[in-house]
């Protein structure tokens, strides 16, 4: 467990804060999955097969923070230790986040950094487009950028009025190793909107998202749409 915790540390000067941050991310995702009981997620799906070591190796590659959280569950104790030792990484916000959310609320849209985002169900009825989402890659296992559409805005409410805004998204499969998933023509990226991935891991922090628009790509066929950053 300690080795997995160390792998989540990105700031070696403040390892405790990095580990707690990984837990907060996992706790937020878990809460979303448990709150949306009518949606099948990684947390409520019936178990079909026990993949054993193969599954754990995949989790190490794709979701290291999830493994850290599952094997180091008592993070409120860790935060209390940060507080008692007057650690510079401690804050009241971190403490309240470690306690877990009080409740969650769903919205069809919101403003993030002055940009209007709308869920696809509402956005598709309008002439404008505000549901396109882009998140740059940069994880340990891949540098693939992620493209998708916003489906729901989830507001997690914590003690003392702290809050975390999360986006639930439908992610298009942009794996360049899969034929027909993406196409790059003269620097313009087109993605296959009929193929999705990460269906059991749809959530991101809202401030991670950049808004993009999708345009029909007549040369590529009806299943591919080109991506352009909003305003460009």
Automatic annotation (TrEMBL):
**Where is the chain membrane-spanning?**
none
Q: Where is the DUF4218 domain?
A: 6-49
Signal sequence annotation:
none
**InterPro entries under this entry?**
DUF4216, DUF4218
The DUF4216 domain is annotated at 155-221
> Superkingdom, according to UniProt?
Eukaryota
- Protein name, UniProt field: DUF4218 domain-containing protein
Q: Which organism is it from?
A: Prunus dulcis
Cite the source lineage. Eukaryota, Viridiplantae, Streptophyta, Embryophyta, Tracheophyta
